[in-house]
Design a protein that fits this description.
185 residues, alpha+beta, Pnp Oxidase, Chain A, eight-stranded antiparallel beta sheet, 8 strands, 31% strand
């Protein structure tokens, strides 16, 4: 049976730490495209009972950052694919922290360093909700894909910056991202 909690418990923190995969959902206010992204690569951290963050790599879009910049709404979901069934949803208000921002160094220190890091998404939780997860199938973790990190390492900082200026300054619905200030004039 599902539960709504005011914050993450020690048991839920342990559950999160054992997960290799999580999902992030955001949406613009005007009814544009809902974005739902799978994430992995040892990129999630619990910062406190009502605060979490994940390391975000350069990708083909930057929807989450655009949506949290516009309205702050974010939902993060974990599913147990091994062991006891559980679905955990974390609802909150998100923000993007970019390299060079005031709290970048302290947040980045808690994550592994790798090529292609774009930002850290921080969420202040407003609701923690669990549900049974009985309909989620068993899957076995086989390892991380290396292509994204290898691509970022091959591109190097200058090409990655150009890629972000081309692909990451607006959402698919035309919303600006926190990277919009880096777009060419």
């Amino acid at each position: 049976m599902g539960k709504v909690l005011p914050e993450l418990t020690d048991g839920l923190r342990g559950f999160i730490a054992r997960q290799q995969l999580f999902f992030v959902a955001t949406a613009p206010l005007d009814g544009g495209h809902v974005n739902l992204s799978p994430k992995g690569m040892d990129s999630f951290r619990v910062l406190g009972p009502t605060s979490v963050a994940y390391l975000d790599n350069v990708g083909s879009g930057n929807e989450t950052a655009a949506h949290v910049l516009e309205n702050g709404r974010i939902t993060i979901m974990f599913c147990a694919f091994e062991g006891s069934p559980l679905i955990l949803r974390l609802y909150g208000r998100g923000r993007s922290v970019l390299p060079g921002d005031e709290d970048w160094s302290s947040l980045a220190a808690g994550f592994p360093s790798r090529p292609g890091i774009r930002q850290i998404i921080v969420a202040e939780l407003t609701r923690v909700q669990s549900s049974c997860g009985h309909g989620v199938p068993f899957y076995t973790y086989a390892g991380e894909r290396q292509q994204l990190v290898e691509w970022a390492a091959t591109e190097g900082p200058d090409k990655l910056a150009a890629y972000q200026r081309e692909k990451n300054v607006r959402s698919i619905d035309g919303l600006p991202t926190p990277l919009a200030g880096t777009a060419p004039a």
